[in-house]
Please model this.
Amino acid sequence: MTAGAPFGKKGTTNMMMVESVGEVLVRGHKGFGPKVSGKVVFVLAPESYDADDLEDKLVVIPHCDNSFLQVLKKAAGVILQNYIGDSASEKYAALLAKTFEISVMSRADGAMSVLREGEEVTLDPQKGLIYRGAEESPACPILSM
Model:
């Protein structure tokens, strides 16, 4: 943390806090839920998965609708790589996240090309970031399989 006082202005202080979160892989829109870590799983066809297959995983999806309801309920988090005009997917993903108390981030540009299946990452929906590795903190238990 650094602080300083501007010249010529009494009673003011500028302060800046710099936090290193590690190697940022993907940026997206701020989402919902706590910071979580887990292994990445790509789900393009929800009917190919069972909820138990995705338990404690960070699930990357291209859109979100009713077909994802059953498979996402045990996930640790949802990474939605949707396009700008797809606000319906964002709203539905947010609804699922709040219902099942899981973390979600939308408009995660490039998530399907940058992230790797089985890779351990941390999703920080409050900052709209996904970064390499797992972070252990009171709000972020490591969810390793």
